[in-house]
């Protein structure tokens, strides 16, 4: 026998042996449909289920007999036309996909069967690695050897992800079209079937044009595979599809940022996941809804500008709500926790707290005019005010804070010594801080969560409490973790209260001089202490009252320069969020301590006047 024939027979023998071994293993190695997924249930602050890792528990499961036969046939025709004849893996499809991908030089077609996709939905993540793919193949084999085709198809149709936090085709029909499966038209069915292939691309709420193009492609496939007739295709293409107009339609799924953050936190904890785990969080759905509605009110899917926000609770450190982006379906990256950006002028309240600690008062003055500073090494530093506007006169700390005057901040920073602000940041765990002249203007990078730690301490009258997502974790064996709140007096209470009242200057019209107060026109209906910050690339607003600390960031992921049209975006979201939080109740504010003196003053000159604005002072 020729050598090449022996080699070929050897390869075939090895392949068949491996094939038999793998399917033998798949047949006898029992696979429970929730065996590999950590059995985790998350609860919100009201004790309601927020998330369950087991699909059959966390959704309304639709039996296969309740899913129209046309819909079953259409899904199989589009996703995996040899579904009923292969054993979980389709060599023909894999070969074709491989050839297409090689020809194009990148991945343009997947080779996964319905069984593989179901295996991934149940047991795996979306990461694109060879190891993950091998696990997917093994799970697919086990599913095929231990479950019927009907059970696998039912499972896939109930676990497919349609974006917007929606799992399962029944939930998708209700979400997108406000209808039941048996009422779906061919046109609606084709649009639904196309979404799981790329929820951020083919959601008709996000990209109507791409969704329509995808629907047309699906209809072509259905006609080619004789699932529909040419006449049915023509009629479907002409149908004017009406999307659901439910008021909460575009808010679904935003809680997933919070869920992801909790799951990531759990991965860093010493928790036994072999048994059922119940995780109690601080997530508040009503507060999340206020935040989400505000983000949706001022952003569009078409614009590439991104948004992140976080709401924490003073005096407890509880993280109540979070938005890692403007829409989870568009991007799962959590910018509130992981994006480190320059904080710009939002650093100034901490600088002015240090000034109050060092004997300065809210009416202490510096001259605001173009100034060149000289560092210890002789290097020159010449910061400018926004639009190069200056008072060219002495201004108070109140007025400097209201107008975000950079010259005043820089003079205060250098007067106190650059180590003062640096050490204050280190106290908050901002270890990336480096003392420099520009740090007074916010050149230090932080995540929104890190910045919120500072402002939540202001809001808590100087008490620092590490932010937390989780209150308690239990299992059948008992309590595995229970949070203990341990407040730390990081800032003096009286100076902090004086600062809190001073931060109302940002929308106090009495501060108008060479410029407008930075938050004028964006103040909520309730009193809040607030500071904005804008760099060439980032727009931040963060503020608080005794009940909530709300931080909002907006910018572009690729660090492109912000146009002026975006400067007010974070301000509007902040304003609207607080208005919704207090839509049906009155706001609350701080009470001055016995040492604090309340004065009515002209905040520009610092002179006391009978009809002046109210600010707080400590005895001199």
UniProtKB/TrEMBL annotation:
Record-linked InterPro entries: Beta-lactam/transpept-like, Glyco_trans_51, Glycosyltr_51/Transpeptidase, Lysozyme-like_dom_sf, PBP_transglycosylase, PCN-bd_Tpept
Which residues does the UniProt record annotate as the domain Penicillin-binding protein transpeptidase? 308-503
Q: Name one GO biological process term.
A: peptidoglycan biosynthetic process
Indicate where this protein is primarily found.
membrane
Record keywords, A-Z:
Carboxypeptidase, Cell membrane, Cell shape, Cell wall biogenesis/degradation, Glycosyltransferase, Hydrolase, Membrane, Multifunctional enzyme, Peptidoglycan synthesis, Protease, Transferase, Transmembrane, Transmembrane helix
- Pull one GO CC term from this UniProt entry: plasma membrane
Q: Which residues form the Glycosyl transferase family domain?
A: 47-221
One Gene Ontology molecular-function label = serine-type D-Ala-D-Ala carboxypeptidase activity
UniProt xrefs under Pfam families: Transgly, Transpeptidase
Cellular location(s) = Cell membrane
Give the residue spans that cross the bilayer: 7-28
Q: What catalytic activity is recorded? A: Preferential cleavage: (Ac)2-L-Lys-D-Ala-|-D-Ala. Also transpeptidation of peptidyl-alanyl moieties that are N-acyl substituents of D-alanine; [GlcNAc-(1->4)-Mur2Ac(oyl-L-Ala-gamma-D-Glu-L-Lys-D-Ala-D-Ala)](n)-di-trans,octa-cis-undecaprenyl diphosphate + beta-D-GlcNAc-(1->4)-Mur2Ac(oyl-L-Ala-gamma-D-Glu-L-Lys-D-Ala-D-Ala)-di-trans,octa-cis-undecaprenyl diphosphate = [GlcNAc-(1->4)-Mur2Ac(oyl-L-Ala-gamma-D-Glu-L-Lys-D-Ala-D-Ala)](n+1)-di-trans,octa-cis-undecaprenyl diphosphate + di-trans,octa-cis-undecaprenyl diphosphate + H(+)
Family under the similarity heading: In the N-terminal section; belongs to the glycosyltransferase 51 family. In the C-terminal section; belongs to the transpeptidase family.
- Write down what this protein is called: Penicillin-binding protein
| Annotated organism of origin | Amedibacillus dolichus
